[in-house]
Amino acid sequence: MAYTELETIEAFFARYTGYLSDGDLGGLADIYNYPALAVSPRGCMAVTEPQQTRDFFAQGQQFYRSRGIQSVRAKDIVTEIEANGIWVGHLVLENLDDVGTPAGEERNAYQIVVDGDGKRRIAVTTPLDGV
After folding, report:
1. Strand 86-96 vs strand 32-40: parallel, antiparallel, or unpaired?
2. Residue 38 and residue 53: Cα distance in Å, rounded?
3. pTM, full prediction
4. pLDDT (tens digit, 9 = 90+) per residue, 51-93?
5. Nearest to 28, CA basis, from 69, 68, 58
6. Alpha carbon of 63 to those of 16, 72, 94: distances in Å?
7. 38 vs 44: CA distance, rounded Å
8. Which of 8, 9, 36, 72 measures 20 to 30 Å from 115, CA to CA?
């Protein structure tokens, strides 16, 4: 394997929020590790296939667009710990309208792993404000 410099966590979340903003379902499916785990107050769900990710974000895109949210950006990124190819932390996803005005925030926690090719991927996602 050729050495490639590890993407910063800020660059990773910029890429992730770019996929969210663009509605890039392929990019979103590719940014997850499989299996992944979605943890919420309603329980835990194993995400075993990229199609599950595409379906989830396709529904989410319709939900957010119907509320005037056109893009999202990551802010207040907090690293709890990063060691041995695993990043654990949380951040705020700031929703933006069509002119870039903030239209709400969502707090999320993540565990990000580095795969065999040196690429960061989401292994665990947890919405901290959701139901």
Report:
1. unpaired
2. 11
3. 0.92
4. 999 999 999 998 999 999 999 999 999 999 999 999 999 999 9
5. 58
6. 18, 14, 15
7. 6
8. 72
Q: How many CB atoms neighbour CB 59 within 10 A?
A: 10
| Residues 28 and 19: beta-carbon distance below 8 Å | yes
Q: Please count the other Cβ atoms lying within 10 Å of the Cβ belonging to residue 35.
A: 11
